[in-house]
Design a protein that fits this description.
Layout lengths: L6 H5 L5 H4 L3 H25 L6 H18 L4 H19 L5 H20 L8 H10 L7 E5 L5 H9 L4 E6 L2 H13 L5 E4 L12 E4 L6 H11 L5 E5 L10 E4 L7 E6 L1
Parallel strand pairs: 1-2, 1-4, 2-3, 4-5
Antiparallel strand pairs: 5-7, 6-7
Helix pairs in contact: 3-4, 4-5
Length: about 270
Amino acid sequence: MTSPIPKPMLTSLQRLAWWGRWPVSVQAVMLQLAVAPMTWLIVWVMGSIGVPLSWWQVTVLQGAGAALFSRLVGLPVWWWWIQAGFWPLLLLALQWQLPVWVPALLFALILAIYGGGIGSRVPLFLTSRKTCSHLATVLPADAELRFLDVGAGLGGVLGYVQARRPGWHCEGIERAWLPWLIGKLRLWVGRSAAVWQHGDFNRLDWSNYDIVYAYLSPAPMAQIWRKVEAEMRPGSIFISNSFDIPGVTPDQVVETGDWNHARLLIWYR
């Protein structure tokens, strides 16, 4: 769908170097702060003409404004919903007089699951079994290769590939704590020989691997390609699940027929 807003307006903040240096979570807070004076101006105007707004209307107005600004500056789509829902949900918690530990626990749980994506713009996406089976068909049959799954979620792809390529050295890395812990237990229960790491995949040297698989989000793909070009050796393979690299045509595309129309985009170095 084509946006009615001119593209230069949509990307003006994204082009500012100082803006791009901030993590997306900080950008979201800054947008909330930018919208707040406009929200209270509307509240004042409505009150001055005899139409006072309720607290529910104020929170919805603030959330809608922050969500709109998040869309305009190019924040990932899940941040639109976070921006829109934060204040109404906070008001709901206050009205229900929930114990303090309830929202704290909810926040901690969200942070544990999605914490890796707060600064990286990468949420938790899980590769389906059907996509894993298609992935296995495009992987080389060489006896000994090094495979890396970046943003490895719950370790499903890593365990699947290791089981079907037992002679390979397979590694996965996940940044968010709860998915990492679940993946650790999952691989341990399955007695997988795969190596499971917690951390930032940007800090790994990709020249150590023959195949790198990524199921991330559209946001980091340009940066990912720069890392591929800088570090991956000739003859190596980069595979992205569903997300294109801007301006770079893949050498092969595999349609998985999955429920979410996943595609494997493959670049041969």
